[in-house]
C-alpha cells in the first residue's frame, strides 16, 4: 500500500514538472508572439484571441475537473503570460533602469541633481512681489540651498483664487535668483508657455495636475531645460513612469521625478506621502527622485519628519515652501514655513546623524 502511495506521489511530482515545463514553454511562445506584435505596433492583449483559446480548451475538455475550474486555471495562466509581456514592455521604457543601469545626474548650470548629495528646492508657493521673493531668496541662500522655487502660473482649484503673476512672476523669480546666485524653478501649465519657461528658468516644473497633460509633456520633451515632473494626485507609479517617458521620448532626458503625495481616504494630511515610491522609483528608473514635503503633508509640523524620512529612503532632494509671512500668503498659507521655521528646518536636516541613511 505504502509502496503504491509512494509511486503515485512520484508520478505526481513528475506531472508537476511536466506542467511547469509546459507553462514555461507557453511563456516563451507568448513572449515571442509579444515581440512580433510589438514590432508591428499591435497591442499585446487581445481579448478576442483569448476567448477563442478558452473556447477551444473547453471543447477539448473531458474531465474530471469542472468546466469552470478549467476555465479559472487557464485564465490565471493567460494572466501570467500577459504580465510577462508587460514586463518586457517596461524593460523597453527609456526611463527604466533596465534600459540604463547607471544613475542619471542632471546638471543645472554648475549644480547637479542625483549625484548622491541632497539638493533642496525652497521658496514660496507663489511669487507675489519682487520684495517677497527677494526676502525668501536671501534666506534660502544663507542656508546653502541652491535652487529657488516660486509659482507664477498657479493651478488653483477655484477659479476665484489667485492665479499667479504669469510671465511677470517668472521675471521676478529670475531676478531674485540672479541677485542671490540661485537656480530657479517654476511651474508651466500650458504647452505654449514652455518657451517662456525655457527663457526665464533653469528648471521647468510640470505639476501634479498636469502629469498626464501629454501635449505639455511632449513640448517639455522638446526643450533642453531640466524638467521637474511631479506625480499626479491619483497616479500609480507605472503611470508616473509613463508620463516621464513622454518627456524622454521627445529627446529631453534631463528629468527629475518628484513624489508629492497621492489622494487617499486619509484626511489627517493634505495628501498621503507615498514614501515607498522613492525607493521604487530609484530601483525602477535611473532618474533622480525628489520629495515635496509641503504639498504631500500640507502640515508644517510634519515637514521635518517627512523630509528626514525622504532622505533616509534615498531621495535625491527635498522641496518645501517658504514665505516671509505665511498668514497673508496668496496661496497655501496653511503650510508654508516662515523664515525662522525654515532656518530651523534646514539646521535640523544638516545635523550629522539627523537621518540614518541605510543606503
Ligand atoms: C507646486 O509645487 O506649486 C504645486 C502646485 O504642487 P503640485 O503640482 O504637486 O500640487
Ligand atoms: Mn503650494
From TrEMBL:
Protein name: Bifunctional 3-deoxy-7-phosphoheptulonate synthase/chorismate mutase
A UniProt-annotated Pfam family: DAHP_synth_1
Organism: Alkalibacillus silvisoli
Alphabetized SUPFAM superfamilies for the sequence: Aldolase (SSF51569)
Keyword match Transferase: yes
InterPro entries to which the protein is assigned, alphabetical: Aldolase_TIM (IPR013785), Chorismate_mutase_GmP-bac (IPR010954), Class-I_DAHP_synthase (IPR052899), CM_dom_sf (IPR036979), CM_II_prokaryot (IPR002701), DAHP1/KDSA (IPR006218), DAHP_syn_2 (IPR006268)
PANTHER family: PHOSPHO-2-DEHYDRO-3-DEOXYHEPTONATE ALDOLASE (PTHR43018), PROTEIN AROA(G) (PTHR43018:SF1)
Chain ranges of the Chorismate mutase domain: 1-89
SMART domains: CM_2
Keywords: Transferase
